[in-house]
Amino acid sequence: MYIGELAKLTGASPKAIRHYETLGLLGAVQRSGAYRVYADRDVLLLRLIRQAQGLGFKLSELHFLKNTQSQPDWQQLKRLLASKRLSIANEIKHLEQLDSQLAALSLEISACPEVQASLAACIA
Q1: Structure pTM?
Q2: Which residue numbers delimit the HTH merR-type domain (predicted)?
């Protein structure tokens, strides 16, 4: 199949597909004259790339796809997923701490007599 059909099947633009190829994420793409000819394997790889991007992975993190003529390195992908999950867990912890600090500050402001007085003046 040609790039237009691959783009329709995967939702990736032809420009993005050529970029992935330049980065080596699609491996060696066959050619018929000046045209790139893609296989079913490329559909699967592109769907995997787009899913990974949707989950927050950068293209530079998908190096496990480079130079794979048969299958991606699934073990390396599992390690990458575990690392991303750990990073997200740490980010969640950090955001929860920020939320607690914001709640404490809000309570502190609500308890301040000056705030209470200025609120009373605004309401009256």
Answers
A1: 0.70
A2: 1-68
